[in-house]
Design brief:
- There is one protein chain.
- The chain is mainly beta and 363 residues long.
- Helices cover 14% and strands 38% of the residues.
- It has 5 helices and 24 strands.
- Strands 1, 2, 5, 6, 7, 8, 11, 12, 13, 14, 17, 18 and 19 form a 13-stranded antiparallel beta sheet that branches.
- The termini are far apart.
């Protein structure tokens, strides 16, 4: 069992090395994608296997380990291109709205009185960490109107406030006047898979709050297969999108979320038609022909021609070159790059050299 945990940590380390060592994640853009649609659901259950518990430690890590590019020269990976779905719980709960409570004294809003604001994250109640939204509701109803001490986070800073629930005669329970979110879901594209472990990455950008653009602090998550049901073609001013739905069952665990993308582990290494490819580092990328792998509504991985240009070898961020779609079939179906294609691997001269991350919409 210890050996499996060690291999999981090593896999995560190698992924981060690819993220930060190669600096080859492409496609300059003015407008980033907002692919993750939050869902106010409680579908996710805590995993109890050793790998998932070890993965939860990775969620709480504030720093990403790095690997020197030299360590990646002999690494080979399966290129991705297949869609995947993620369902996750956030750390604490996030306030998404307010609703006055009908009390014996008229309409009041205890949360507003306590100084809480939309997008605040509630982490603890009376010193105890929250599990989910249902846990917060239970603690409020059990308070019998006693003042609660909340540990919250706003714009990266933690603070405490006092919240006093009020009784709502119409519902026969105590309330605080807030709507909260504790989970989310979305669809991405696998960039690569490590052959020995089933660890995978969907690179480009992480799962971010659709309004603030900040990375979502995750606690745990699961990975599901996805069926792409439709393609909305992109146009000038509109990035278009891939639409799909989650298939039943869980096929893996989501392990981490960073500005470079997300990574996780499949329960079993998926069947891949292509042989493992080496990693292409920034000095190996050339302007000219390449191709990407992605899945449209045929639900089969397709190979589509692109051109690489505007290479910036001194870039320190995730965008260091531009990719232009030249494939007639892909242009006909999507108009270029659409939302949902983030993570699609870019391959040039037999090497994985990057992943689609942003789409330009002002052309």
């Amino acid at each position: 069992m210890k050996k499996r945990i060690w291999r999981l940590r090593l896999s995560s380390l190698l992924i981060c090395g690819i993220l930060l060592g190669s600096q080859t994640v492409p496609l300059a853009a003015e407008t980033s994608e907002k692919e993750i649609a939050y869902a106010m659901s409680n579908e996710i259950t805590a995993s109890t296997d050793t790998v998932a518990l070890d993965a939860e430690e990775l969620f709480l890590t504030d720093t990403i380990p790095t690997v020197a590019p030299e360590a990646l020269k002999d690494l080979t990976v399966y290129p991705g291109g297949m869609p995947f779905g993620v369902k996750f719980y956030t750390e604490g709960v996030t306030i998404v709205g307010f609703c006055d409570v009908e009390s014996d004294r008229g309409k009041v809003n205890p949360a507003s009185i306590a100084g809480l604001k939309q997008k605040d994250m509630i982490l603890k109640v009376n010193g105890e960490a929250l599990i989910n939204a249902a846990d917060l509701t239970a603690r409020i109803e059990a308070s019998e109107g006693a003042e609660l001490t909340l540990l919250c986070r706003r714009a990266g800073r933690e603070f405490e406030t006092k919240l006093k629930p009020v009784y709502c005669p119409a519902e026969s329970r105590y309330k605080t006047g807030i709507w909260v979110r504790d989970s989310g879901a979305g669809i991405g594209t696998v960039t690569f898979i490590l052959p020995d472990t089933g660890t995978f990455a969907g690179l480009g950008h992480g799962i971010c709050d659709a309004e603030t653009g900040a990375l979502v602090p995750m606690k745990r998550g699961s990975v599901s297969d996805v069926t792409i049901s439709a393609v909305v073609k992109g146009e000038a001013g509109d990035p278009g999108e891939l639409k799909g739905y989650f298939n039943a069952g869980k096929v893996g665990a989501l392990l981490g979320n960073s500005a470079c993308g997300v990574w996780g582990m499949f329960s079993e290494v998926p069947e891949v038609d292509t042989a493992p490819l080496p990693i292409g580092l920034r000095d190996e990328i050339k302007e000219g022909d390449a191709y990407i792998l992605c899945t449209l509504d045929t639900n089969k991985i397709g190979k589509y021609s692109v051109k690489i240009s505007n290479i910036n070898r001194d870039a320190t961020g995730s965008k260091c070159y531009t990719v232009t779609v030249t494939d007639p079939k892909l242009l006909s179906a999507t108009g270029g790059i659409v939302q949902g294609m983030s993570g699609s691997p870019i391959i040039q001269n037999g090497k994985l050299v990057g992943a689609v991350t942003h789409v330009c919409v002002n052309l």
